[in-house]
Design a protein that fits this description.
about 75% helix; mainly alpha; Tet_transcr_reg_TetR-rel_C_sf; about 0% strand; TetR family transcriptional regulator
């Protein structure tokens, strides 16, 4: 599972670097920090969903994460 999480973070990083190159993210965006943050949100949502946390609570987390997007 750790390898899968590492791959997820790598993919987040890759996409964010592309976003910087395309002008969608600021050039000074801390890619490592942002990728780690959103991967952690994703992993946490997965754990919460497996624990049958109500959908409304999961959606609230997603909405909060979207508000944090630079």
């Amino acid at each position: 599972m750790s390898a899968e999480r590492g791959e997820s973070i790598r993919l987040f990083r890759e996409r964010m670097r592309r976003g910087i190159a395309d002008g969608d993210l600021a050039a000074d965006t801390d890619v490592e920090e942002l990728a780690t943050f959103y991967a952690t949100v994703l992993f946490g949502l997965s754990v919460q969903a497996k624990d049958r946390v109500p959908c409304e609570r999961l959606l609230a987390v997603v909405e909060r994460a979207l508000r944090a997007w630079p």
